[in-house]
Design goal:
11 helices; five-stranded parallel beta sheet; globular; 255 residues; alpha/beta; two-stranded antiparallel ribbon
Length: 255
């Protein structure tokens, strides 16, 4: 706690049980003794957490919609707020084909498949290391028919239209990015967090090309950063005559 890790005792407990496959009741037993290797691993874990490295990266997995996904420094750590995209889609009829822009670890694309939201799914990303993690996660869940593809969304056109498009794009402005907490800025990939501009570049790109990539009556579902961007994003899409519908996150903010 003195090093800024507010959940320290629980994290140590989770790490020990997960890494060493030790049941909780064994940890309570005062007779339990760690061997030399276990002590080294535990010490390394604590030093990395003191340095503010995210718990999920050290563990190598992060939860999303009830499943554990492989993660490392090449991909954004999935957030609970993004799960709202799945909650919304589960209330809709099933889609034939879907596109996940900036797929990262592949968590959204894979949950679309596991929750039977779409039949055919493509995930695109500009990061080759991220695509490698997405493919690892696809195999982790024994899925074979999601296509993870390298694509520069901001600069190259797509040649296909989709019934559903989802994305958690880089929406943090360059100015706000400089002020992020160290455990985010120093470890998570900048390319997944910021557009190095005003935080609106991806929304502008979506609005500009949407008629070319979304089928009539199709749906685009995007995550946004802070509620104060709502008017700006509304204006971007209304400029191209699109209707926007906003949903609130678990903190009652429009996301």
């Amino acid at each position: 706690l003195q090093h800024g890790v507010s959940n320290a005792s629980k994290e140590v407990d989770w790490f020990i049980r997960y890494t060493f496959n030790i049941q909780k009741h064994l940890l309570i037993d005062q007779e339990f003794i760690f061997n030399k290797t276990q002590k080294y691993i535990l010490k390394d874990f604590m030093q990395r957490r003191i340095s503010q490295e995210p718990f999920q990266y050290i563990l190598g997995t992060a939860p999303f919609y009830g499943r554990d996904f492989i993660v490392n420094k090449d991909v954004l750590i999935p957030r609970p707020e993004t799960e709202i995209i799945i909650d919304i889609l589960l209330q809709k009829e099933k889609f034939d084909n879907a596109l996940d822009v900036g797929t990262g670890s592949g968590n959204l694309a894979i949950i679309l498949k596991l929750e039977n939201i779409a039949n055919h799914i493509t995930g695109i990303d500009i990061s080759v290391p991220a695509l490698n993690i997405a493919n690892q996660n696809m195999h982790r869940f024994n899925i074979k028919d999601i296509h993870f593809i390298y694509h520069d969304f901001l600069n190259k056109d797509l040649s296909k239209k989709y019934d559903l498009i989802v994305s958690n794009p880089p929406y943090i402005s360059h100015l706000d990015y400089k002020n992020l907490e160290p455990h985010i800025k120093n470890y998570e990939p900048a390319i997944a967090l910021t557009d190095y501009s005003d935080g609106l570049i991806f929304y502008k790109r979506f609005a500009m090309i949407l008629k070319n990539i979304l089928n009539p009556e199709g749906m685009l579902l995007l995550e946004v950063g802070i509620e104060s961007t709502q008017n700006s994003i509304d204006s971007i899409f209304k400029k191209y005559h699109f209707q926007t519908i906003w949903h609130k996150d678990y903190n009652n903010n429009y996301r």
